[in-house]
Every structure is written in structure tokens, then in C-alpha cells.
Design goal:
Layout: H1 7-38, H2 42-70, E1 74-78, E2 88-93, H3 99-108, E3 115-117, E4 119-120, H4 129-135, E5 140-141, H5 146-151, H6 158-170, E6 176-179, H7 188-194, H8 207-216, E7 220-229, H9 237-241, E8 247-255, H10 259-262, H11 270-300
Parallel strand pairs: 1-8, 2-6, 2-7, 3-6, 4-5
Antiparallel strand pairs: 7-8
């Protein structure tokens, strides 16, 4: 184990292994993605997409490898039984740190189909990674404030159209659609600005989940409601690379698809929006209580 070295040395070694893993797999990924781009027919997509997914899974396995070498993390994970690699899932999780993504990928890799995230439009310009996300059909979303939409009404509905187009692609091959309902990482400052009703969560945004369910509700086997707790506090990405994260608690809860909402018109029907918001609010109350209990469990485990 490389975590016997001082933390900054561990961080440098982990960063190098992370970078080498990216530089090895992304060029291979792009070769097949470009082939799919220049021959834009469904039969080519159905041939190439499984190859792209296997490459991405190998890439994630490489990340898990350097994590095992550099991190000494105590994992407490429950709820992973009975998952189906050849099905579709809508995955929902609380969001505290970029580390969440590595945690989710590490746990779910090759247990369920590859997690596909909805990303902010600006992230397409991230060197190398932006190309990789594009190659894997991760949807890039433009987030506009209500004030902006009032002066540019033509932009209203663009994200919904992007979501529907992405879901049409996802429906072709088993996929796990990843959704952070909070829309951004939790911090006490953001919680205070929002005047959030929840102790450990920001206010949830139901729109993205509603669109995914409306477009693919008949495909999803279940909603996987994931809760991540860092008993010693969430760390930033560099602290994680340095091996300072000691404990992670994860709980996975499969939920049935709410069929009465899945086929309803979220965008056009105020009653449907209200029903979605009530459903998500109840989900968030349960998650908030679960996080509180898991934090208490973490304190007992010290």
C-alpha cells in the first residue's frame, strides 16, 4: 500500500496514476467515438456503444485500482444485492464532493450499467475529460436563471429538449441515468442561502428526474436511491488523493417507479409538478433522517 508515505507524496502518486489512466483509455475511447460520429446510423451506434461502455468500465476499474493502492478507506456499504447489469436504472444521490462520483463509480462498476451524468455545458471544455464525456454521450446542459429566461424566452425548454434527446439514446442500450437532485454540492453556506428545510441536504430539483422518467419510465427497472455519508466530514478532491478520507458509509435503496407520475406532463401541468414536488419532498425527508442516523452511527464507530 502506498499510503505509508506522507500525505503530499501520496497525493502526487495518486494524481499521476489518475492522469496515466486517463491518458491510456481516452484515446482508445475517442477512436471508436469518432467512428460512430462519421457513420451516424443506428446499426453502427448499436455496434459501437457496447465497446465504448466496456472501455469506460475498464477505465473505472483502473481508478479503483489506484484508489486501493493509495487510500486506506473503511467502507460500510449496504443494499447492493440483487442489482442487474443488463437493466436500466435511474440513480439518485445526495451530493457533497467530487469524491461522490468516484465512490459511485467504484461501487456500481459492472454491477449496473455505466452511470451517465447530466453535466454543465462548461464542462465540455475540461481538457481531455470533456472529450471523454462527449464520446460517452453524457448530456451537456445549459443552466439559466429565471431572470435570464425572462429576457431570453427562446431558451426556455432547451434543457428539456437535450434531456429527451439523451434519453432516446439511453433507451437503445442498458444505461444508468445519474441524477443529483440537489443540482450542486452541499455546503452549509448554500444551505443557508436557500433557507433549506433539510438539515443535511439542499432543496431538491424535480425537473430533471421528471423528464427522465417521462422519457424512459417504461425502461427503468427501479430508482436506486443512494445515500453517501462521510462520518469524518466530506473532503475536497486533493485531500482525497492525499489519502485523508478514512471512512465512507453508503446505503442503496431500490424504489419502484412512480407510474402515476412517470407518464404525466411535468412541464405543462401544474398539478403534476405539485405531485412531483410532494413526492420528492417526502423522499428528501427520508434521506435527511437517514443521513442523521448514519452520522450518529459514524460517531459510534470512531
Amino acid at each position: 500500500m502506498l499510503n505509508i508515505f506522507p500525505a503530499p507524496v501520496v497525493g502526487v502518486m495518486a494524481s499521476l496514476m489518475l492522469a496515466l489512466n486517463v491518458l491510456f483509455w481516452v484515446p482508445i475511447l475517442l477512436v471508436f467515438a469518432i467512428l460512430k460520429l462519421i457513420i451516424p446510423v443506428k446499426s453502427m451506434r448499436l455496434l459501437i456503444d457496447p465497446i465504448l461502455l466496456r472501455i469506460a468500465e475498464a477505465w473505472i476499474a483502473g481508478n479503483s485500482g489506484w484508489m486501493r493502492l493509495t487510500q486506506r478507506v473503511q467502507w460500510d456499504v449496504q443494499g447492493m444485492d440483487g442489482l442487474n447489469y443488463r437493466s436500466w436504472y435511474l440513480v439518485n444521490c445526495n451530493h457533497q464532493s467530487w469524491v461522490d462520483i468516484l465512490v459511485l463509480q467504484h461501487l456500481f462498476n459492472r454491477r449496473i450499467p455505466l452511470l451517465k451524468f447530466f453535466l454543465k455545458q462548461q464542462l465540455i471544455w475540461v481538457p481531455i475529460m470533456g472529450l471523454a464525456w462527449w464520446a460517452l454521450d453524457f448530456p451537456f446542459m445549459r443552466r439559466h436563471s429565471e431572470e435570464f429566461l425572462l429576457t431570453h424566452p427562446e431558451m426556455r425548454g432547451k434543457d428539456q429538449a437535450t434531456t429527451r434527446q439523451a434519453c432516446e439514446k439511453f433507451a437503445m442500450i442498458p444505461t444508468s441515468v445519474m441524477n443529483f437532485l440537489e443540482g450542486t454540492r452541499f455546503t452549509p453556506a448554500k444551505q443557508q442561502r436557500q433557507n433549506s428545510l433539510y438539515k443535511h441536504l439542499l432543496k431538491p430539483k424535480a425537473g430533471g428526474m421528471a423528464l427522465a422518467l417521462n422519457a424512459m419510465g417504461d425502461k427503468f427497472q427501479a430508482i436506486l436511491d443512494v445515500t453517501i455519508v462521510y462520518p469524518d466530514g466530506a473532503l475536497d478532491f486533493w485531500q482525497f488523493l492525499c489519502g485523508k478520507l478514512k471512512r465512507i458509509i453508503v446505503r442503496v435503496r431500490p424504489l419502484p417507479i412512480p407510474q402515476h407520475l412517470a407518464q404525466a406532463d411535468y412541464a405543462g401541468d401544474p398539478a403534476v409538478r405539485e405531485a412531483y414536488q410532494k413526492w420528492v419532498h417526502q423522499l428528501w425527508l427520508e434521506k435527511d433522517a437517514q443521513i442523521e442516523n448514519l452520522k450518529l452511527l459514524g460517531l459510534k464507530g470512531k
